[in-house]
Write a structure and sequence with these properties.
Purple Acid Phosphatase, chain A, domain 2, 2 domains, 8-stranded mixed beta sheet, 6 helices, membrane
Length: 256
């Protein structure tokens, strides 16, 4: 599939919890003229625990080839990659790092593109809290993996019980709806027609009275991306299991 623009957030490449193989398959099956990496594309907070795999490199190599073929790549800073410039140079991605940008849709509407951590409560924007969150997330994912293997062997379940509980606890502290309202207000003050973000790991796409809100989701749990197709429609994409290709958009938002 080909798209006018694709928006990816919270890939967390380099973290042990990243699902780089699925992301690499998805990108190889779905190309775009312009790619927005909407924050936390890399996750090198803890150099001792960085896990850079062949599939992580596949993702980077694919994006580099697309740039060489004429595609545009736009990198937005996230709270887990506060200083990605040095890493990008080492990885061979020569792209500037920005805080926020405007995307112009096919019909001329403008959307603010921003990671979204700028609208967190001040306490949660601190580097300390980001590091604590990373340690908790990776620790819980590791325990969940071990716990899940035992349950699978017993034939009981194959989910991620502890990870799901941690996410729900996080939503109690910082609800997705409150986060959305703050980002919508920021975009309205910026005098644009909508906002595309990430950060909260909760995929969403809807339009209210002509104002667009889209959250790309992530590549740890939801495995989703937002894309504008060649006809100018915004879509929330989800890869087909184990293949990376998109069989049906999870949701379509048609232009007016």
């Amino acid at each position: 599939m080909s798209y006018r623009a694709m928006f990816l957030s919270d890939c967390h490449l380099g973290a042990a919890v990243a699902k780089a193989e699925l992301l690499a398959d998805f990108l190889e099956s779905n190309r775009a003229e312009r790619y927005y990496l909407v924050g936390d594309f890399l996750d090198f907070w803890h150099p001792v625990t960085v896990r850079w795999t062949d599939d992580c490199q596949r993702v980077v190599d694919h994006l580099r080839r697309r740039v060489e073929q004429g595609a545009e790549l736009i990198y937005l800073r996230g709270n887990h990659d506060p200083r990605p410039e040095e890493a990008l140079v080492e990885l061979g991605l020569q792209v500037p790092v920005q805080e926020r940008v405007l995307h112009t849709m096919g019909d001329g509407r403008k959307l603010l593109v921003v990671h979204g951590d700028c609208q967190d409560y001040r306490l949660f924007r601190s580097a300390f809290m980001t590091r604590v969150g990373t340690i908790l997330n990776q620790g819980v994912r590791f325990l969940d993996c071990q716990f899940g293997r035992g349950l699978v062997l017993l034939g009981l379940r194959d989910g991620e019980l502890l990870s799901r509980a941690l996410r729900r606890a996080g939503w109690i502290v910082c609800s997705p709806s409150a986060h959305e309202r703050r980002l919508v207000k920021l975009a309205q003050v910026t005098n644009v027609d909508g906002v595309i973000c990430g950060h909260f790991h909760v995929a969403a796409l809807h339009e209210n009275e002509g104002f667009v809100y889209a959250n790309c989701g992530d590549w740890l749990h939801s495995f989703t991306a937002v894309a504008e197709d060649l006809a100018g429609n915004l879509q929330l994409l989800s890869p087909a299991p184990s293949r990376g290709s998109v069989t049906e958009p999870a949701q379509i938002l048609v232009q007016s």
